[in-house]
């Protein structure tokens, strides 16, 4: 099976598995325990937290500066940001039309509780449009949350510009950087955001851990209660082992970023160009192609083809890819991202996502292109 569904999750890197198994063998115990073993676990946890912050360009000393709150993953970090950042009462929240469900559905919950939620539209390339942002920010606003790059198209969002406008209005900005970290250089301080979400299983780290980075002056109200861990912002016993996996994966991803970025982009472009040459532009189109994109993501429309049938045919042909947002039943809803881009129903219902990783090889990409072409030709005939 050739795996091109890396925006969904990635393979755990061997070095990460090794570091985690050594951590489990070292028997790190509860970092909140007072005995020596607990203190040893606390020191290792604090080291990992500080290293992760440093890798991300955060400014930290152990007791002040930017902070990093470990969570169970990106979904929890996004929820924590949306419900807990900024002044807790009153004020609208602004998001973009293409946020991950862990932001858009959390925003629906806020709306149901009386918060005004405003949604920035995107253009046909999937880039958030900021024309109304300053006007909206003239109203009391608790938080703006916009992703760094879209999970379905890979299209980069104008977060630097948004952060500039937010600072002019003194409104905190949260950036969901889940798909960008490890693929393009990301520096938390340069972004000048108040908070940023990270999820290491997207860059060959462990599933079950994520983080919310907070700048030194933003306030986070907790969503859970019952412990003093992580300054009571996210209580619960921390896993030193998962934290070490996170730290190791981030170090590896950042170390490999320039070479891997160039290679993934070369392979992604090769895949798109080969398909275009073989099938022609009247049979397929690349969603978001005119915008700046992450180097490893390709969202391809085959109008007239049913995306679900195509993904299943590809699965049978030994290619694992995705239709975008899969729901629990395994079927897929039409992509809210592609809908927000104003694409036609035919394009939306025929679009699939292919996402590479630093492990993807040229042979695999050539094989994927061949198998997609065959499946499309077969589906078009039938
Ligand atoms: C942009 C984005 N944000 C958040 C998440 C949620 O992350 P996690 O799977 O760690 O909960 C994802 C996962 O696909 C994502 O793509």
TrEMBL record:
It comes from the Bacteria. GO terms for molecular function: cysteine desulfurase activity; iron-sulfur cluster binding; metal ion binding. The keyword Transferase applies. InterPro entries: Aminotrans_V_dom, Cysteine_dSase, PyrdxlP-dep_Trfase, PyrdxlP-dep_Trfase_major, PyrdxlP-dep_Trfase_small. It catalyses: (sulfur carrier)-H + L-cysteine = (sulfur carrier)-SH + L-alanine. Keywords: Iron, Iron-sulfur, Metal-binding, Pyridoxal phosphate, Transferase. Residues 2-367 form the Aminotransferase class V domain. Its cofactor is pyridoxal 5'-phosphate. Belongs to the class-V pyridoxal-phosphate-dependent aminotransferase family. NifS/IscS subfamily. This is Cysteine desulfurase.
């Amino acid at each position: 099976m050739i795996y091109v569904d890396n925006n969904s999750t990635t393979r755990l890197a061997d070095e990460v598995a090794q570091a985690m198994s050594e951590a489990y063998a070292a028997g790190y115990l509860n970092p909140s325990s007072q005995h020596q073993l607990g203190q040893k676990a606390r020191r290792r946890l604090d080291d990992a937290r500080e290293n992760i912050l440093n890798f991300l360009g955060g400014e930290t000393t152990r007791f002040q500066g930017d902070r990093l709150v470990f969570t169970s993953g990106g979904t929890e970090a996004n929820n924590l940001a949306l419900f807990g950042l900024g002044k807790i009462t009153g004020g609208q929240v602004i998001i973009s039309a293409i946020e991950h469900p862990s932001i858009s559905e959390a925003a629906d919950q806020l709306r149901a509780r009386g918060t005004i939620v405003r949604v920035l539209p995107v253009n046909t390339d999937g880039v958030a449009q900021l024309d109304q942002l300053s006007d909206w920010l003239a109203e009391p606003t608790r938080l703006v949350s916009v992703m760094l790059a879209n999970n379905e198209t890979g299209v980069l969002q104008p977060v630097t510009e948004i952060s500039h406008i937010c600072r002019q209005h003194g409104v905190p900005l949260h950036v969901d950087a889940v798909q960008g970290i490890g693929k393009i250089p990301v520096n938390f301080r340069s972004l000048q955001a108040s908070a940023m979400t990270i999820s290491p299983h997207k860059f060959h780290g462990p599933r079950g851990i994520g983080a919310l980075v907070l700048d030194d002056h933003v306030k986070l109200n907790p969503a859970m209660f019952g412990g003093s861990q992580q300054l009571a912002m996210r209580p619960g016993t921390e896993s030193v082992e998962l934290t070490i996996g996170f730290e190791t994966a981030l170090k590896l991803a950042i170390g490999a970023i320039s070479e891997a970025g160039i290679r993934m982009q070369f392979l992604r472009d090769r895949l798109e160009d080969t398909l275009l040459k073989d099938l022609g532009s009247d049979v397929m189109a690349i969603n978001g192609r005119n915008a700046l994109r992450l180097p490893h993501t390709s969202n391809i429309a085959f109008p007239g083809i049913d995306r679900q049938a195509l993904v299943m045919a590809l699965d049978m042909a030994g290619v694992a890819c995705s239709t975008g947002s899969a729901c629990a039943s395994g079927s897929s809803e039409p992509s809210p991202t592609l809908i927000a881009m104003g694409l036609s129903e035919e394009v939306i219902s025929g679009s699939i996502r292919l996402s590479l990783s630093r492990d993807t090889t040229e042979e695999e990409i050539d094989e994927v292109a061949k198998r997609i072409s065959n499946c499309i030709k077969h589906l078009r005939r039938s």
